[in-house]
From TrEMBL:
NCBIfam families: deoC (TIGR00126). It catalyses: 2-deoxy-D-ribose 5-phosphate = D-glyceraldehyde 3-phosphate + acetaldehyde. Its EC number is 4.1.2.4. This is Deoxyribose-phosphate aldolase. Pathway: Carbohydrate degradation; 2-deoxy-D-ribose 1-phosphate degradation; D-glyceraldehyde 3-phosphate and acetaldehyde from 2-deoxy-alpha-D-ribose 1-phosphate: step 2/2. SUPFAM superfamilies: Aldolase (SSF51569). Belongs to the DeoC/FbaB aldolase family. DeoC type 2 subfamily. One of its GO terms (molecular function) is deoxyribose-phosphate aldolase activity. It is an enzyme of class 4 (lyase).
Length: 336
């Protein structure tokens, strides 16, 4: 049996809670100077991201620890046209207990120590998810504002946010109007997100940029800054429905803007890659990116989330391999 990861200093550090939860981002007045001069060197970004997995290697106990930490940052998601209330309730049960008890025991972890960061669903299933997660402390996130295209009339978008908050959603994942980014209408983007933020009330707002649709890394960087200025609590890469979703390249451009925003305002904003993060190997790359670019605080769920569905099954498989030396079939670790 491998040594319990909890016996290693690396794991102790990874499972220590960050010093307090981050305060919400109140936003700032619209200020063109914070983003107008931003240009992103795509070749330099590619060189940087290409070294993430090669310069940092995690094996054995440290890898198991990082993967357990990743689970606590997953927004366990189902956004399919054939979703049912039964599927959502099963997903919520998995969020409460994302790893089998026998594996947690072998890793020296108590079952209640590990749960996912949130459950993310369409508005139709918010109330069912809230009921299924009652008492767990796991928040429900609702995709909103005409997800995934974001082309509904603006008043309907605001009403959709209102409805999800009324049903109990404590996080709202909105989609921005891509046209504003593609045409450089930054003031319109700011005003839109500002209104979404106001409609959310106490619910946290995650602004989805749909990076696969807005074409360039410079657009990604500028849109990131505008959404943070408007009060986004998180900036998120993708809906998961675009042709290209989360990548390390767009993520680097976004987290560099998070750092610039903190330098300018003192406010911390979270980051959520979503779409295509489906393997344990991939999520380790994103965790390393967060640690190296933003620091230890961005390994906690109040500042880092991963939008995923199949990722959890692969992490659980890797943990079983760590404990037993054998890989199991995916059906042994169902998500819903």
């Amino acid at each position: 049996m491998p040594q319990s990861p909890t016996q290693t200093p690396a794991v102790v550090a990874l499972h220590r809670n960050a010093a307090g939860a981050s305060a919400r981002n109140p936003g700032t007045p619209f200020d063109v100077s914070l983003f107008d001069g931003v240009r992103v060197n795509a070749s330099a970004v590619e060189r940087r991201t290409a070294t993430l997995a090669t310069r940092r290697t995690l094996k054995q106990n440290p890898q198991a620890a990082w993967l357990l930490k990743a689970i606590t940052c997953i927004d366990l998601t189902t956004l399919s046209g054939d979703d049912t209330e039964g599927r959502v309730r099963r997903l919520c049960a998995k969020a409460r207990q994302p790893v089998r008890d026998d594996l947690l025991a072998a890793l020296g972890m108590a079952p209640h120590d590990i749960r996912t960061g949130a459950v993310c669903v369409y508005h139709r299933f918010v109330a069912a998810a809230v009921d299924a997660l009652a008492g767990s402390g796991i928040p429900v996130a609702a995709v909103s504002t005409g997800f995934p295209a974001g082309l509904n009339p603006h008043p309907l978008k605001l009403r959709e946010i209102d409805a999800s908050v009324a049903d109990g959603a404590s996080e709202i994942d909105i989609v921005v109007t891509r046209e504003y980014v593609l045409t450089g209408n930054w003031r319109a983007l700011y005003d839109e997100v500002r209104e979404f933020r106001a409609a959310c009330g106490d619910a946290h707002l995650k602004a989805i940029l749909a990076t696969g649709d807005i074409r360039t890394l410079t657009n990604v960087a500028r849109a990131s800054m505008v959404c943070m200025m408007a009060g986004a609590d998180f900036i998120k890469t993708s809906t998961g429905k675009e042709g290209v979703n989360a990548t390390l390249d767009v993520s680097l451009a976004m987290v560099r803007m998070i750092r610039a925003y903190e330098d300018a305002t003192g406010q911390r904003v979270g980051f959520k890659p979503a779409g295509g993060v489906s393997s344990a190997k991939a999520v380790l790359g994103y965790q390393i990116l967060m640690k190296e670019e933003l620091g230890r605080a961005w390994l906690e769920p109040d500042l880092f989330r991963i939008g995923a569905s199949s990722l959890l099954s692969d992490i659980e498989r890797q943990l079983e391999h760590h404990v037993s030396g054998r890989y199991s079939a995916f059906h042994r670790h169902p998500a819903a």
